[in-house]
Design goal:
Blueprint: E1 2-5, E2 20-24, H1 29-33, H2 35-51, E3 54-58, E4 61-65, H3 76-83, H4 103-106, H5 120-125
Antiparallel strand pairs: 1-2, 3-4
Amino acid sequence: MFYYTVGNIPLQFRSKLTAIQLFAIIKKYVRQFGVEILLNDFLQTLRQLGSRGVAMNFHGDRHIIEGALLLVLTDILAAHWLSGFNEGVGFARKACRCCNADEASMKPQFTASSFQPRSLASTTNG
């Protein structure tokens, strides 16, 4: 399930159920066809919002709306999946999707600055 909320509403209303909008409910097809198909239009609209804005009519007046994606909240499995890494962490060679730490090296050193940053490109190339 994918949801979104608009950040420029008063703080006391942001986490209200009425401010959280349903974007998509996907079950099996996202595994078969990939998340890119689902998110393509959404990401294209975000790029447009961030570069030139989107024209919208409110009560007969035309306004240019601009915006940006601020954050993505997920659990560990969804974060790995969206990043293109293996979802399960139990059998992964690298225990963290953000750095190149393995389980043994994470025990004595547990700050991100102690490790080389990780990317999907570095994972697939080495």
